[in-house]
Amino acid sequence: MTPMLNPNPNPNFPERLRRHAAIYLALWRNSVVREMSFKSNFLLWIVVELLWFGLQLSFIGVIYLHTDHIASWSKWQVVMLVGASHFIQQIFQAFFLTNCVQLSELIRTGRLDFMLLLPMNTRFLISLRQVDLGGFVNAASALAVMGYAARQLHLVPDAAQIAGFLMLCVAGILIHYSLMFLLASVAFWTVRAQGIVWGYYSLFNIARNPDSAFQGFFRAFFTFAIPMLLVANVPVKLLLNLGSPREMLWLLGMVVVCFVISELFWRFSMRHYASASA
Amino acid sequence: MQKYWHVIKIGLANTLVYRFNFFFRVAFSLIPLLATIYLWRTIYRGQTGPVAGYSLAGMISYYLMVTIVDTLTAVTEDDWQIAADIKDGNISQFLLKPINYLAYRLCLFFSGRLIFTVVSLVPVALFIFCWRRYFVGPDGGLALGCFLLSTFLTGLLQFFMSFTMALLAFWLLEVSTLIFMVFALEYIAGGHLFPLNILPPVLARVLSYTPFPYQLYFPVGIYLGQVKGPALWQGLLIQSGWVLFFFVLARVVWRRGIRKYSAVGG
What we know:
- The structure holds 2 protein chains of 2 kinds.
- By secondary structure, chain A is an all-alpha fold.
- Chain A has 12 helices and no strands.
- The model of chain A has no long low-confidence stretch (mean pLDDT 88).
- The longest helix of chain B is centred in the last third of the chain and has 31 residues, at 230-260.
- In chain B, α1 (2-16) packs across α6.
- The model of chain B has no long low-confidence stretch (mean pLDDT 90).
C-alpha cells in the first residue's frame, strides 16, 4: 500500500475508517485505470449487458401479447420490476460481483495469504478490491427503462418515494452481496466452488418475477429463507403506491440476518483456513 | 479411428472431474425453470382457453423438453476451451500431430455431453416426474423418431457454430464478449425463453431464415407436434443444410486462422 497509510497497530475507530476510505479511493483509481486500458472491451461488455436486459424485456413484451395481466401485475408494472431488478443487480455487480467470484481463485493461488497480512479488514479488501464501472452504465439504462414505464403508468413518485426506493435498493444489494459472499466462502472447503457461485447467479433471475405470480412453498421459501422475491418487488411496489410497511421492514430485517450469517460463516472459515501453499 | 476413441475416453475422464460442478449447474438451473413454469401457470389461471395455440400442459411440456434438448446438446465449456487453446498457444501441438483438431474437439464435445447428461439424469427426471401431470408424450412414433434425429443435428449445429465462433480468437484478443452476444441471440431466437410460434407471425418468419430456431426450438416443436407434415421434412432439410454450412465454415475459418496463427507463448 501507499506510504501515507501509516499502519498504527491499535488505531481507534475514526482512524480506521479514514484509512479504509483512503484505501478504497486508491482501489477506485486502480479500477478506473484498468478499465480505461481496455476501452473497447469495456464498451463491448456494456453491449452484452444491454442485450441481455433487452432480452428480458422482450420476454415480458411477448408474454403480454397474449395476456393483459400476470396475477395482479400489468405490463408496465412488470417492466418497472424488471428494470428495478436489473438496476439492483448491476449496482451489485459494479461493487461486489467480480470480487466475490474471485475469492476461490485467491484461495487456490495462495494470494489470500498476502491479503491477510495487510493491516486492514480482510473482508473489506476482498469484497471491494475491484470496481466494475460498466455496472453503473448498465444501471443507468435500467433507470431509463423504469422512467419510461413510470410514464406509461402515469406515475409521478414524490421525493420521499424515490428516497425510500433507493434505500430499499441498497437493502436488496446488500442481501445479494451477503448471500453471494456466503456462497463464495464455501470455496474454503472445496476448491471447485464455482458451480455454487454461478448457481447463485441463476437465483438472481427469480428476483425480477412479480411476487404474486407465486404461491405456496416456492413463494414462502423465496420470501422468508432466500428473500429473492423481496429484493426487487418491495422497492418497486413502493413506487407503484402498493408498498406495504410490513414487507419493507421484513426486507430490512433480512439484510441484517443475511449479513450477520455471512460474517459468522466468514469468521468460522478464517479460523479453519490453512493456506493453500502450506 | 482408434486415436479418436482414445480422445473420447480422455474426455470422459476429464469431465468426470467436474461432475459436481455439472450437478450444481443443473440443479440450480431448475430453479428459474420452476419460476417460469409457475409464471405461465398463473397466466393460464387468468385466461380462458389456450394461449397462442398452447394448452397449459403443452406450454409446460415445451419448457421441459427444452431442458432435455439443452442438456443433450448445449455447448458449455467447449468454446472457452478452444479460444483458450488458441490464445495460450496450445494448438501448436495439434499442428504437429496427425490429428484433426475439429474431430478432436467434436469427440471431447460428445464425451462432455455424455457425462453432463448422465449427471443431469436424476435431477431432471425427478423434476419432470413432479410435473408428470402436465408432461405430454411425443406426437406419435414418427414425431419421436424425427425428434431424435433433429436433436442429434441440433447438437452438431451447436458445436459447429460454437467452434467457428471460438476460432475468432485467432484474430481477436477477447472473444468472450462476442460469445456472450451470440449466446444472448441464441437464447431468445432459439426458443429458450418462449416457444417461437407465440411471436407475431412476421417475426417468427424472419427468425425461420436464421439458424437459431434449429438450435433448440425445432426439435422441441417436432416432439410437441407444432411442426408436422411438409414443414417437418422441409425443416429437417434446412437444419441439415445449416449443419453442413457451419461445418464447411468451421473448416474454412480454421484453415485461414492457422495461416494467421503465430504460436504466442507456444
